[in-house]
Sequence to fold (404 residues):
Amino acid sequence: MIRDLRICFVGDSFVAGAGDETALGWVGRVTAAAWDRGVALTAYNLGVRRDTSADLRRRMEAEVLARLLRAGDAQAVVLSFGVNDCTHEDEMPRVPPEVTEENAAALLGWAATRWPVLMVGPPPVLDDAAHDARVAALSARLEALCAAMHLPYLPVHAPLAGSGAWRNAVGRGDGVHPDGAGYAALAGLVEGWPPWRRLTTA
Amino acid sequence: MIRDLRICFVGDSFVAGAGDETALGWVGRVTAAAWDRGVALTAYNLGVRRDTSADLRRRMEAEVLARLLRAGDAQAVVLSFGVNDCTHEDEMPRVPPEVTEENAAALLGWAATRWPVLMVGPPPVLDDAAHDARVAALSARLEALCAAMHLPYLPVHAPLAGSGAWRNAVGRGDGVHPDGAGYAALAGLVEGWPPWRRLTTA
Fold:
């Protein structure tokens, strides 16, 4: 039976698929794979370049409600952010990790009272080792938060940092975002994640 | 020279690519084609199922500003809506044509003071001849409005109504939305439209 499933993907440039010459990003790839499994999935991509968790708090509620209220047979929200929070401006992170955690708790908590919620962790940043170390630490922090909130969290930092496909794809891209082959590697991690598969099984 | 072009596509389920098993829709296809021409295009898909022009007035400004303010080298907005306005509920259109025109003037006018704006007309509705006749009439009305506002308008109703690819694709879909092959036919019309090509040429 094909369900009318609608999912909002809320996050940053990696959610938006910035740099992907195929225009699919990881969100488009996992959506097409769900169709291949017989699930009629409408994916609303709410990734915005440069967005931090603070930016998401300003827009997520209105944007998600405009898409999921009274919609379809089944809905869900997938969140993914963190790299931009860890960017230094004037030697300070755009959002300090304790505030990111507070923002994440608010975003996840709001969504989880209404819909199934999954979180995908931030990917590695290859052009700045200090930035990347902050992202790795934030990913662990977000993973602990999701565990405490009993929400599924997919850590992608370590597997992508060790992935030749991701590293080569970022090299062909702008140094931060991969090309389509890198998004395919990230989509593969999501595709192999049991909570995602349970959500998107016909 | 590859530009960092960011475009918001604002509209309904046809903009969202509902029913496309490839997850590209026409927006994804014309985005990938722009990359093929050397244009680094970030497409923000703001299509929402069931949205009328009245719904768009409630959300367009906030959603577009969150994506285009201080973003990239170049930005633009593409609008496309109308089919849902013409849907009858209790024997009345969800939005009467004179109100759709008023909404369209407001939406186009707000965007056009800030960015280049293009409008793509509504596609045909194959499962309801009376609904489809209202859409055809609204498309002509929106075309006249855009002409008066000196904004490019692409009528797609007649070419898609006469397109075997579109009709067959809708037959394989849910009776209103096509599958991927239909979105490819619509993307082909946009790809061949000089105002779109001028906007997305490296």
Summary: The longest strand of chain B covers residues 4-11. The radius of gyration of chain B is 16 Å. Residues 66 and 167 of chain B are 37 Å apart (CA to CA).
